[in-house]
Write a structure and sequence with these properties.
about 80% helix
């Protein structure tokens, strides 16, 4: 089916559809967070090994996404996005059927390969079809699906996992992914091609130390958050005595904070500029995360802490993307793909570090460890900003 489009704007409902696909991708990626205790118990592994399912997904995404986006640069965008959703669905199917940790890890890597096509290619389609005057709003709408997955998808997946078993959560994600793939094939215009992204463009970006230093701030900032967030469910079990309903409520508040943060980040960027906004957000993480090492606390205080922590964390999206596009406007497509990969580099590194911290000490160490990593992220943004300034000055 071919859709006639006005080149100045996306077809009606296209951004909403692609945002919905991003929701499914986010839910499928992070649903593991709500089921870590169940995976550990059912597969007979440690909580650190269960959290490793997220680490493997993140590493596979980080490595495969820029490569796959570059290799498929000359193929029609509808085919690439639909194929990505299909590959994501296949990996999710194998996750639901996985009898052991090894096959679960492999299936998560396969799902990550599909996701690594959908999100950056979808973002490029939205950015290219939107009018220049509404490009920022269009991109924000597209990424709203990923944010919304934190509000609804992750806690819903956790609730389903605790109620019907962790495999049921994957079956739900699989069904949504198949629907998404079908709708992409029907609704995305056939033959969409933009300036192709090539492996040469990828190489240029990777060789640019200033650009890559800026991109990797995404990894260091999110790495601090995921030191704690990956293992939030077992931490709440141990310190607060929470089960299914308590953990679901906390994840729901975290998601609500992510939505608030998305909005706050745009306001901060407009008022303070991207760099000052990112510095402020790092300071917030440095202060907030060690508080989780003081659990247990009252339920109300915990919910307020989770909401504010999440809002500070997810406010980074707008200022970071604006900063990257300002630094490398001619490499926007590649930089967006690398930034999406950096999200998962941070997820993987933070999850792995969180697993190491709890094996050396206790789950209650995770908040303090996350604060230390956030301090490193603060140093990273200050160094990166200085390097960009020096290059601009020709030094």
């Amino acid at each position: 089916m071919t859709i006639e489009t006005d080149p100045s704007r996306p077809p009606t409902g296209l951004i909403a559809l692609l945002s919905g696909c991003n929701f499914v991708i986010g839910m499928g990626a992070f649903v593991v967070i709500g089921m870590v205790p169940l995976l550990a118990s059912d597969l007979g592994i440690s909580t650190a090994a269960a959290g490793g399912a997220l680490t493997v997904y993140a590493l596979a995404y980080a490595v495969l996404s820029p490569l796959l986006v570059s290799i498929t640069g000359r193929i029609g965008r509808r085919r690439v996005i639909a194929a990505g959703m299909g590959l994501f669905a296949l990996g999710t199917l194998f996750s639901a059927l996985a009898p052991n940790m090894t096959l679960l890890y492999l299936s998560r890597a396969l799902a990550a390969a599909g996701a690594g096509l959908v999100t950056p290619v979808g973002a490029a389609v939205v950015a290219a079809l939107a009018p220049k005057t509404a490009q920022g709003k269009a991109i924000a709408t597209f990424y709203f699906g990923l944010t919304l997955s934190q509000v609804l998808g992750v806690p819903a997946g956790g609730w389903i996992a605790f109620t019907f078993g962790w495999r049921a959560a994957f079956w739900i994600v699989l069904a949504l992914a198949l629907v998404g793939a079908g709708l992409v094939w029907v609704r995305v215009p056939a033959g969409l091609r933009f300036t192709p992204v090539s492996l040469r463009d990828l190489g240029r970006a990777l060789r640019d130390g200033v650009v890559m230093g800026a991109v990797l701030f995404t990894a260091s900032f999110l790495g601090a958050i995921y030191v704690l967030f990956t293992y939030l469910a077992p931490l709440l079990e141990q310190t607060m005595g929470y089960g299914r309903d308590g953990i679901t409520l906390v994840l729901l508040l975290f998601g609500a904070g992510a939505v608030a943060g998305n909005l706050i980040g745009g306001v901060l960027t407009d008022r303070l500029g991207p760099v000052k906004s990112l510095v402020l957000l790092c300071l917030g993480q440095i202060v907030l995360m060690p508080a989780f090492s003081g659990l247990p606390v009252s339920g109300g205080l915990l919910l307020a802490l989770v909401f504010v922590w999440s809002a500070f964390g997810w406010s980074f999206v707008a200022p970071q993307q604006v900063r990257l596009l300002q630094l490398a406007p001619s490499l926007a497509g590649v930089v967006l793909a690398l930034n999406a990969a950096a999200i998962y580099v941070g997820t993987a590194a933070g999850s792995a570090l969180g697993g190491a911290v709890q094996t050396m000490g206790d789950l209650t160490w995770l908040g303090a460890a996350g604060g230390v990593v956030a301090l490193g992220a603060l140093g990273h943004i200050l160094w990166s900003h200085r390097a960009a300034n020096l290059r601009s000055a020709g030094l």
